[in-house]
Sequence to fold (348 residues):
Amino acid sequence: MILKQNEITLKRPDDWHLHVRDNILLQLVLHYTSSTYGRAMIMPNLASPIVDIQSAINYRKKILSLVPNCHNFIPLMTCYLTESLDPNEIEKGFVSSIFHAVKLYPMNSTIHSSYGVKNIRSINKILERIQQIGIPLLIHCEVTDVNVDIFDREARFIDQVIEPIRKQFPKIKMVLEHISTKEAVEYIESSDKRTCATITPHHLMLNRNDLLINGINPHFYCFPILKSRVHQEALRRVISTGNSSFFLGTDSAPHFCNKKENIHGLAGIFNAPVALSVYASIFEELNALKYFEAFCSENGARFYNLPVNKDKITLIRKQTIVEDAIGKFPNHIVPFLAGKTLDWSIKI
Ligand code: DOR
Ligand code: ZN
Ligand code: ZN
Fold:
C-alpha cells in the first residue's frame, strides 16, 4: 500500500458480503461493484433463493453477462441453507468451485429469509458436512423470537446459537456477517481464526440516533438495526487495532425507493457506490490507515484461502457529491449518503 497525503494506492479490494438482486435492480447496481472490487460474495436471498448448484450457475452466468468487458470482476456464489438442503449438493458445489460458502438465515430474520432455518438442531447433518469439507458458513446473526428486543437480537444469537454450534463443531469456518454490537466484536476477538466477521460502512459510520432523530430515515434502516453509540465505538475500535479476523463486507442491499419510503419500509442500504470511500474516511478518522489495505484486500482473501488480487486501485482526496437517485422513476434507488459529500474518490 502506498499512503500519501492525498492518495491511497492499495491492492484491489473484495466485497465479502453483497446483494446484487436480479432483473432491473441487478442491471442498475452491478457495475458499482464490478468497477471497484476484484470479487464479491454474492448473497443467495433472491425471491427464488439460490438453493442448488444449477440455480447458482444460472445466476452467476447472468451476473457475468452484465459485467462490462473492461472490468476484472469475479462473482463468488453462495448456497442458501434450508432445512431440506442435501449435504451432497453442498459438497458437489464446493468441490466444483460453484459454491464458495453456505449462507445461514434464521427463518424470517430478514429479507427473503422465509426459507431459512427454523430449528437449528434440524441442520446437524448439514453442519457436520460443512465442517468436514471446510466450506465457510456465513451467518446472519439475529434471533427471531418476537419477545426479544430488536436491539438485543444479535447478542442473544451469539449466546443461544453461535456458542452451541461452536462447541459442537469446533472446526467450522464461520463468518458472523455485518456485526453490529460490542458483544460480537468481543466474541470474535476471543475466538481463533476460524471465526471471523464482516463489518459494513454503515455500522461503522452511524448509530441509532442517526436513524431516529431529526425525522426517521428509511435509508438508514437495515438489519441488523443500527445500535447505540457504545456498539458503534466497539466496531470502530476493533478495525483500528488491525485484527485480521475482521474484513470488508458492505452488505450493500438495494431496494427500489418506493419499497424503502413506505409504511412497511424494507431493511437494506444500497452503499455500493460509496462504501470504499466511507471506509477510507473512517480509517483516516481513526488514524488507522495503515490497516486499511489488510481490511479491504487481504484478511478476507486469506480466510477464504484465495489469492489476494494482483492489481491495485487508487483513492484520491477529491470531494464528490453522491447521486440523489440511480435509475428512472419509479424504478429508482436512493444510494447511501445521497446528496452528501464524500472526501475520497476512486481514481479512474
Ligand atoms: O438490511 C438488510 N437487508 N439486512 C439483511 O440481512 C438482508 C438485506 C437484504 O437482502 O435486503
Ligand atoms: Zn444478513
Ligand atoms: Zn446481507
